[in-house]
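ok so i was messing around last nite and threw this chain in just to see what happens. nothing serious, just curious
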Amino acid sequence: MKNLFLLIFLVCSIKFYSQQKENEKIVSDIYFNKYKKQKRNATILSVTGGVLLFTGFIISKQESEAANLVFSKNEVTGYSIVSLGVISLIGSIPLYVSAEKNYKKTVSISSSVQTYHF
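result:
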């Protein structure tokens, strides 16, 4: 009886001996993957916004005729592209914020995740 109890105790202790629960690891991986995707999308959106902003300024400064308006055709086109770039840059801010929240959730759930930013 003593040997049976010892055997059951050893088998159970091997099964339950770990520092991190499997469920916590799965949740941590979900939040970390979500963090990486949001960070990548935010970076793409901000780089695209910067390129549109720069391109719009270049187009707006080119010489063209005024078409009976206050602004020339190139200025209207350039400022439209600049406004799209600004909207894209502003739209990337919430993605960066939510990505950082997901990263903090990942770190708080799992102590084995390193604090490296990608």
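not much to say yet. The chain has three helices and no strands.
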